[in-house]
Amino acid sequence: MQDPNWFYSALAQCAAAIIGIISAIIISRIMMISGEKHGLQNRIAELQSEISHNENQIKTISYEEGRHGGVNFEDVKKWNESIHSQVMSKDGMIDDLYEKMDSIALPKHISLGIIILVLSSLVSVVLPLSILFLSNSVLNLSVNDNLKIGWIVLFLFILSLLLIFSYILYEIKYLNNDTLEK
């Protein structure tokens, strides 16, 4: 191992690629959950607008009935009851949507995944690149010292990979359990 530069460079590039892929998976999951909540919020707003429109119709009908005494009271009553039942139905739908929105949440362990990715970035990307820079410019390390440091960095890289893949397996297990419960 005469020139350790290739080792540290390759290690940092490999780790950066793996961390990037896992980060993309986590971010896409967060975006998916956010999109679901946003869609439910839009549907709730739409239903609330329809309820407001229906309530205005009831007021208009009641006003017209009082203004024009010639309107058939039974027809107006039936129409008001129909609109009122629509409003009640939409209120129930809104309650169901709020319950559904409350059940959609980020997994409790997502922060663990982010912590693992940050630590892996520090250990597997920043550390090898720092050693690469410092060994060439500041430290003037011998071949033996570079070999010792290389083994330590390789051990930390493998450890961070184990953490990342353990998290992935945990995430898969969590998704499978969540799917089975539904």
What does this structure look like?
The structure is a single chain. This protein has about 180 residues and is mostly helical. It has one domain. It is built from four helices and no strands. It has helices spanning about 5-65, 75-105, 110-140, 145-180. α1 (about 5-65) runs antiparallel to α2 (about 75-105). The longest helix is centred in the first third of the chain and has 63 residues, at about 5-65. It is rod-shaped, with a radius of gyration of 31 Å. The chain starts with a helix and ends with a helix. The mean pLDDT is about 80.
Task: For this entry, give a set of tags.
4 helices, 0% strand
Short description:
This protein has 182 residues and is mainly α. It has helices at 5-67, 73-103, 110-139, 143-181. It is 90% helix and 0% strand.
Poorly predicted parts? none
End-to-end distance:
55 Å
SS-derived structural category = mainly alpha
Per DSSP, the total helix count is 4
Largest sheet report = none
User: What's the alpha carbon Rg, rounded to whole Å?
Assistant: 31 Å
Q: What percentage of residues falls in helices of 4 or more residues? A: over 70%
- What is the domain total for the residues? 1
Question: What overall geometry do the principal axes of the alpha carbons give?
Answer: rod-shaped
The pLDDT mean sits at 82
